[in-house]
Design brief:
The protein is an alpha/beta fold. Helices cover about 35% and strands about 25% of the residues.
Length: about 200
């Protein structure tokens, strides 16, 4: 799948993640970012238009692939953001402890191979009192939808660059010590197995 992974998949991901329902979800979360911000899985920079440059002093965009950075860098320039891009996995963030006031993660937790390690790294780089802003799709509350998620996940994972349909987002956050007092959930428009969303803010204790 070299040709698909290298040339087609980035375009597919950019198109799918840039659909209007997902962009509306981003708009609910990203403007809350402030101070020194780390975005996990910045990709082509779909979140960049929603950052408030008056509130964000510096943005680190973390992604294991450079394939879509040209577009992300252009977005940052166009929106007057002081942005720096880091080629790295979320499980090993190349920044010091207590670096960030905010970590932003949108439609990313589904693809990270070792979720627990990534969330521990996010805890490490967040300052005391810092916040994690998240918007993710994951395990649906309805049994019939969950059955489709489990059934389709192996194929979806292979075609979607490692994306998982059925990750239990609240449990994964809780297991890593993150508590959210404002988490919201709903199905956004689209194919239900891929469209049950969780979003909000979380802090660790």
């Amino acid at each position: 799948m070299g040709f698909y992974d290298n040339y087609l998949l980035p375009k597919v991901v950019h198109f799918m993640c840039g659909q209007n329902p997902a962009m509306k979800q981003r708009e609910k979360i990203v403007p809350q970012a402030e101070g020194r911000v780390i975005e996990i899985g910045i990709g082509s920079g779909l979140n960049i238009p929603y950052y408030d440059p008056a509130r964000v002093s510096h943005l680190w965009g973390l992604d294991p692939s450079r394939k879509m950075w040209d577009l992300a860098k252009k977005n940052a320039r166009d929106h007057h953001l002081d942005a720096e891009f880091l080629e790295s996995e979320a499980e090993s963030i190349p920044l010091d402890d207590n670096t960030a006031d905010t970590v932003v993660m949108t439609y990313t937790l589904c693809t990270i191979p070792d979720v627990h390690s990534a969330l521990q790294e996010i805890r490490r780089v967040l300052k005391p009192g810092g916040k994690l802003l998240f918007c993710e799709h994951g395990e649906a509350p309805d049994e019939n939808v969950r059955r489709w998620q489990h059934r389709m996940n192996p194929v979806w994972n292979r075609l979607g660059g490692g994306c998982n349909l059925n990750r239990p987002i609240p449990r994964l956050l809780d297991q890593s010590g993150f508590k959210s007092a404002d988490m919201q959930t709903m199905y956004i428009p689209g194919w239900k197995p891929a469209c049950f969303n969780y979003w909000g803010s979380a802090r660790y204790s």
